[in-house]
Amino acid sequence: MYNARPRITRILSMIMISALTIPLFTGCAKGETVADKGQSTTQPDTKQEQKEEKKDPVTLKLPIWSTITEDLFTKLDLVNEYKKEHPNVTIELELLKDTEYENTMKIRNSANELPDILPLKSAWLINFKDNILPLDDLDAAKNNMFAADFKVDDHIYGVPDSQFNEFVWYRKSVFQEYGLEIPKTWGEFVTAAKKIKDGGKYIPIAMGGKDAWPDYPFNEFMPSLVAGDGDYWSTMATIDEPFTKGQAFYDASAKIQELYDAKVMGPDPLGVGFDQSKLMFASKQAAMIALGQWFGSDLKSMTDVDMNDIGAFLLPVRDSVDQPFNTISMVDTFYTIPKTSKHPEEAKEFINWFFSDAWYSKYLTEAQLQSTMKDTKIDLGTMFDGAFDVSNLNYVLNKGGNEDYKKIESAIKFDVKKMGQDMMSGKDFNKMMQEMNKSWKNARSK
User: Fold this and answer.
1) d(CA 280, CA 288)
2) CA separation for the pair 332, 310 (Å, rounded)
3) Which CATH superfamily is domain 56-163+332-367 in?
4) Is the pLDDT of residue 34 over 80?
5) Which spans does this entry mark as compositional bias, Basic and acidic residues (predicted)?
6) Which of 23, 59, 255, 367 has its CA 20 to 30 A from that of 317?
């Protein structure tokens, strides 16, 4: 008789195996094997993900030329503030002398050793244009009010960090003592300085002529103010004899010579350096000093300075209150990225962060500088109360000159600050102008 038990047993076994196997496969996603299921994306390997997210350490080298900037970065702890958001990035600051900065960077450029982030002045952008990256697509560049004004070959190469004006800083108590009002014309300014000199108690205007550069508010900027042309250096490059009476450079220099000849900058302005001149003002030995807006934070850092006695007014160069009141508006410290940087993307991230609310407003408020970003406003404080209350105010955006100007400047070693020293020393003014015309015309012809 046929025995059906073994066959029934085999059938039941197959059914049980099928029943156990089906859930294993139906639980897998399409295209996923049982082996794949063990590493399902719904249960990630945390260690692996962390390993992938962990970024390699990066050091970004950032040189600076100002001790004031170094003090601000230190006080506000720039290095650690950035590391909070970018823990893998270390900002390495390097302080260089402002008088040596440009040449140092030219030497490093020749050796392909430029830093990852290269701050430049506007006049230097042309010199380094072939060695730095275009930043047209950078958010910080797009939102900057002035970056596009300094394009080179139709590209934005640098993002300026601050806007500031040039001021004459003054002692309110001295002006009250001599019954002086804030001058609104060049004549009123010279007259006020002479009146303080005649009083015999104070040096009217502190001047660190020994260092040359402190005469820049006069010798470097006044030609542009007289011309009403922020790009006056480029305009000069189109003129054979710009040192002729009736030309803006000559007319501005004649005003400056009048001031120097009045001997209102102390008995020996060429024997005094900048550090001494600012101490003279801080200690109230001098009634005035002409310097940029950046000087406000410098004053605050000095001890025993009565800030309530410090005021500021815009340098007047006009001859009549009916004329436009031209005043220099400067933008400074253009952040650029050299092509040789090993970390260009990280450098771009840093520049965007620098101009973000996380840092930028805090930095400029402490520095007492104005914003270059469209949506950022800075409170300048009481020192500037009334400083901008003048009729017909006109901002002249200072620029560094085009390539034609740079060629002439280099050919004849044109140095307006050194010219200021010569003017203070008593060198024959008209002879100086004639010699400059000759050299300038000769350089243009070549």
Assistant:
1) 10
2) 24
3) Periplasmic binding protein-like II (3.40.190.10)
4) no
5) 46-56
6) 367
- Residue from 76, 157, 55, 68 nearest 354 by CA: 76
With tokens 């040096």, the residue in question is 203
Indicate if the pLDDT at residue 67 is higher than 80: yes
Yes or no: say if 297 and 367 are a contact pair by the CB < 8 Å rule.
yes
8 Å CB contact between 76 and 366: yes
Q: Which residues touch 132 (CB under 8 Å, ≥6 apart)?
A: 118, 157, 158, 336, 337, 338, 339
According to DSSP, the β-strands at 58-64 and 89-95 are parallel
Which residue in the block uniquely carries the two structure tokens 């590493």? 39
- For the chain, what is the HEC assignment? CCCCHHHHHHHHHHHHHHHHHHHHHHCCCCCCCHHHHCCCCCCCCHHHHHHHHCCCCEEEEEEECCHHHHHHHHHCCHHHHHHHHCCCEEEEEEECCCCCHHHHHHHHHHCCCCCCCEEECHHHHHHHHHHECCCCCCHHHHCECCHHHHCECCECCCEEEEEEEEEEEEEHHHHHHCCCCCCCCHHHHHHHHHHHHHHCCCEEEECCHHHCHHHHHHHCCHHHHHHCCCCHHHHHCCCCCCCCCCCHHHHHHHHHHHHHHCCCCCCCHHHCCHHHHHHHHHCCCEEEEEEECCHHHHHHCCCCCCHHHEEEEECCCCCCCCCCEEEEEEEEEEEECECCCCCHHHHHHHHHHHCCCCCHHHHHHHHCCECCECCCCCCCCHHHCCCCCCCCEEEEECCCCCHHHHHHHHHHCCCHHHHHHHHHHCCCHHHHHHHHHHHHHHHHHC
- Contacts with 383 (C-beta within 8 Å, 6 or more apart), sequence order: 296, 307, 310, 311, 312, 368
Distance CA 33, CA 44 (A): 17
- Tokens 């950046």 correspond to 294
Same fold, 56-163+332-367 and 164-330+398-445: yes
Per-domain residue ranges of the chain: 56-163+332-367, 164-330+398-445
Please compute the mean of the pLDDT values over residues 243-270 and round it to a whole number.
Answer: 97
**Which pair of tokens denotes residue 218?**
């006069």
Q: Is the pTM of this model over 0.85?
A: no
| Tokens representing residue 425 in the block | 């020393």
- Residue 284 backbone zone (phi > 0: left; psi -120 to 50: alpha; other: beta): left
Question: Which CATH number applies to 164-330+398-445?
Answer: 3.40.190.10
Tens of pLDDT, residues 93-130: 999 998 899 999 999 999 999 999 999 999 899 999 99
CB 223, CB 239: distance < 8 Å: no
